[in-house]
């Protein structure tokens, strides 16, 4: 899916399409992975596709991405079980299980540190065909400093990212 560009998957908006489209946009030359990252980070279902002059040439949606991925849950589970978990956890790979339903991955089990669990979830998000990841793993130690309501670590001054 890395070789696909937005232009390969986007479609033209119908004149009658009145659904609001978010302000976030991609170029037809951007990778599909870039569009997926933007949709995930912005919590949106679709993105405008703009040409170099800023004119809208189409939209790309989760449905477009999912249709292109067209991978079975079993294939996704196999990639996670055979490739991601052994690399991330080594001999402890069997301590985490990936349940996949309709390309949504639920990670179960336990890891030593919270940061390891978050890294695994992040890696799984990048497996081709995955639409979203639910990290339900338990962890024995929380090595990440808690964050305040503003998103800053509690121990950091507010200007520290």
Outline? elongated
CATH topology of the largest domain: Histidine-containing Protein, Chain: A
Query: What is the total tally of β strands?
Result: 7
Taken as a percent bin, the fraction of beta residues is 15-25%
Main pleated sheet: 4 strands, mixed
- The radius of gyration over CA amounts to 19 Å
Measured distance between first and last alpha carbons: 32 Å
CATH architecture title of the largest domain: 2-Layer Sandwich
Uncertain regions spanning at least 5 consecutive residues = 152-161
Kindly state the mean pLDDT as a whole number? Answer: 80
Q: How many structurally independent domains? A: 2
Number of helices: 5
CATH class of the largest domain: Alpha Beta
Structural class: alpha/beta
Determine the fraction of residues in helical runs and give it as a percent range.
25-40%
- Taken in chain order, the helices and strands follow as HEHEEHHEEHEE
Keywords: CBS domain
Protein name: CBS domain-containing protein
Organism: Virgisporangium aliadipatigenens
Pfam families: BON
Structure description:
Keywords: CBS domain. The chain is α/β, with parallel strands linked by helices. It has 2 domains: 6-69, CBS-domain (Roll); 73-141, Histidine-containing Protein, Chain: A (2-Layer Sandwich), CATH 3.30.1340.30. 32% of the residues lie in helices and 23% in strands. It is built from 5 helices and 7 strands; from the N terminus they run αβαββααββαββ. The strands form 2 sheets. Strands 4, 5, 6 and 7 form a 4-stranded mixed beta sheet that branches. Strands 1-2-3 form a 3-stranded mixed beta sheet. β5, α5 (114-125) and β6 (132-135) form a beta-alpha-beta unit. α4 runs antiparallel to α5.
